[in-house]
């Protein structure tokens, strides 16, 4: 019986096939969540608070962009996110604080926190956002601004985490001690109803637009 040799692919074709396989596997890995670093960061967030439904009020103080980024698993994507607290220790969120950002091109934007202190910025709200950015927070008469610029981090909670240590300045706060937290601030937080959507509020400079 005559033996037929199998045709061999040229080195160029073989390299193309290998590249295609690599791309396909990479896409599969991303879609199936095979990034161990990202998966670990998501798991490190822990379980949801059963008293707070998933939505604009949940996971106050945590790095929102761990889930709300291109890798998911959340469907909504955030360009920036964070939580503003009154004091350095207790998680009493600041309702209706103004979070102002100025990017590298001088573009200015302002966003309002909800009653647990959360704020989040969708990509379509800042389509040309350019890092580094400057950030300040105001709830009159209190005002606080970051001394340095944010180079690339999109989630405040990745740097501003508890407890304060050499790798973190602690949670974002408007006052330096719990004794300085105003009574009305505590009352607003206590009255926060996480079962209803937050009002669509804008900063003073945006009210005429």
Protein described:
This protein has helices at 11-31, 36-44, 183-190, and strands at residues 80-83, 98-102, 108-112, 118-121, 134-139, 142-145. With 209 residues, the protein is of the alpha+beta class. It folds into 2 domains: 15-44; 52-206, no CATH class. The chain has a 4-stranded antiparallel β-sheet, with no helix packed on it. Strands 1-4 form a two-stranded antiparallel ribbon. Strand 5 and strand 6 form a beta hairpin. The longest helix is centred in the first third of the chain and has 21 residues, at 11-31. Residues 21-32 have low confidence and may be disordered.
Strand percent estimate:
5-15%
Question: Spans of 5+ residues with little confidence (pLDDT < 50)?
Answer: 21-32
* Helix content estimate: 10-25%
Q: Total domains, how many? A: 2
How are the strands of the biggest sheet laid out side by side?
3-2-5-6
Query: By helix and strand content, what is the structural category?
Result: alpha+beta
Largest beta-sheet characterization: 4 strands, antiparallel
So how many helices? 3
Number of strands: 6
User: Which geometry do the CA atoms define?
Assistant: globular
* Whole-angstrom Rg: 23 Å
How far apart the termini lie comes to: 86 Å
Mean pLDDT: 88
Order of helices and strands: HHEEEEEEH
């Amino acid at each position: 019986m005559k033996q037929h040799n199998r045709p061999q692919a040229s080195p160029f074709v073989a390299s193309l096939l290998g590249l295609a396989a690599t791309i396909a596997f990479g896409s599969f890995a991303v879609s199936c969540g095979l990034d161990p670093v990202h998966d670990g960061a998501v798991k490190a967030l822990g379980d949801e608070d059963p008293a707070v439904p998933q939505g604009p009020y949940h996971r106050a103080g945590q790095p929102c962009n761990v889930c709300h980024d291109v890798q998911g698993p959340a469907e909504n994507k955030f360009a920036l996110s964070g939580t503003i607290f009154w004091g350095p220790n207790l998680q009493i969120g600041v309702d209706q604080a103004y979070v102002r950002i100025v990017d590298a091109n001088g573009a200015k934007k302002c966003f309002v926190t909800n009653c647990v202190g959360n704020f989040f910025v969708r990509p379509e709200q800042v389509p040309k956002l350019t890092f580094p950015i400057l950030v300040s927070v105001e709830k009159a008469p209190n005002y606080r601004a970051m001394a340095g610029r944010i180079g690339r981090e999109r989630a405040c909670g990745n740097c501003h985490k508890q407890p304060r240590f050499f790798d973190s300045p602690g949670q974002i706060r408007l006052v330096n001690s719990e004794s300085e937290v105003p009574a009305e601030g505590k009352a607003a937080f206590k009255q926060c109803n996480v079962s209803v959507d937050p009002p669509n509020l804008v900063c003073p400079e945006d009210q005429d637009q």
